[in-house]
Structure formats: structure tokens, C-alpha cells
Specification:
It comes from Streptomyces ficellus. Helix content is 19%, strand content 43%. Strand 2 and strand 3 form a beta hairpin. The radius of gyration is 18 Å and the shape is elongated.
């Protein structure tokens, strides 16, 4: 039951994304026009300290008009290594430089509409280097006990699916 993308044309494009229209062949031979969004990869990073606390950001998302806890994240620049982008984003948004990063998981948050892949990384330590360069990204940055994560997600305090998935994986890895 595989759908086949026969061709696609770009309807709109900017530095962040493309909106394309695809001619898709269905298994029964019918065709349909399907809009899709092509996005750059997203790199996400955090650290977990010796007290099993995870570094998070409290921020507002104007698109959904919602507040929630997130991890530092941003797009991977052309030619940039994904792990290096994750480290850069964490430093810029939190003021903490991660130790050696480990790949946690890669998720496709909305694969029925977009080709976005979010690559999540974590470190076992981080060094505070100063006030974050991109302090406008969040209202505050805090070390949150990993043991609280499942309940925070259940209460809707971590609304982004990619962040929730990564945090639950970290909770499992560190606390079982």
C-alpha cells in the first residue's frame, strides 16, 4: 500500500522552508495532488547533570499562543554537522556549553505533511559560559529533575511532541 511521489513543484520558497505540490500515485492507480512542506533538519540538545536534572527552557510559542518547557533547538545551517548545530543551539539559547553529545533519537514530528526530521542529542555534563546570546528565545532556563518529566508531559507542560519524546527517552535511559 505504498504511495508514490511522481513529481513535485515548488509553490513557495524561502530560507526556512519550501511548500511543494506533489503528483502522488495511489496503489489503486488513482492520482491526487498533495501539498507538502520541505524543511531543513532541526538539531536539539540538552544536558543531564549528576543530580539527574535536565536543562530546559520555559518559552512562549506565538503560533499556538502557548507556554511550555522545551529543549534548545534550531535549524541546521547548510554544510553544518548536525551534532555541532545541536551544541551551538544549546550554547546560544541557554548559556551552557554541552560536553560530548550523544545521539538520543531522531523523530519526524508531522510526516504526513512535512519531511522535517528533528535530531535530539544529550550530554552528561555542561559548562556554564555566561548569559545566553539568544536570551529572547525563552523567559528562563532551569535544571528540572528528570523524575518529574512524565507528570509534566501528562499535564501538558511539554507540548512539543519532539521534546516530549526525547525527554521520555532520557528519563528511561537515566532512571529506568
Amino acid at each position: 500500500m505504498q504511495w508514490t511521489n511522481l513529481s513535485e513543484q515548488t509553490i513557495y520558497e524561502n530560507r526556512w522552508f519550501k511548500v511543494n505540490l506533489a503528483d502522488v500515485a495511489l496503489p489503486d492507480g488513482r492520482h491526487l495532488d498533495h501539498f507538502l512542506i520541505r524543511l531543513r533538519p532541526v538539531a536539539v540538545a540538552t544536558a543531564v547533570n549528576e543530580a539527574n536534572e535536565v536543562l530546559m527552557l520555559w518559552r512562549h510559542r506565538f503560533i499556538t499562543d502557548s507556554w511550555g518547557w522545551e529543549l534548545a533547538a534550531g535549524v541546521v545551517e547548510d554544510g553544518e554537522d548536525i551534532a555541532e548545530a545541536a551544541a551551538r543551539e544549546m550554547e546560544e539559547e541557554t548559556g551552557w556549553r554541552p560536553g560530548p553529545l550523544r545521539h538520543l533519537l531522531t523523530v519526524e514530528p508531522s510526516n504526513g505533511l512535512t519531511d522535517a526530521r528533528h535530531h535530539l542529542y544529550w550530554a552528561e555534563d555542561a559548562t556554564y559560559i555566561g548569559h545566553p546570546e539568544d536570551d529572547f528565545e525563552s523567559s528562563r532556563r532551569e535544571w528540572i529533575p528528570l523524575k518529574l518529566i512524565p507528570d509534566m508531559i501528562a499535564r501538558g507542560e511539554v507540548p512539543a511532541a519532539n521534546m516530549a519524546a526525547g525527554l521520555l527517552m532520557l528519563h528511561h535511559l537515566r532512571l529506568g
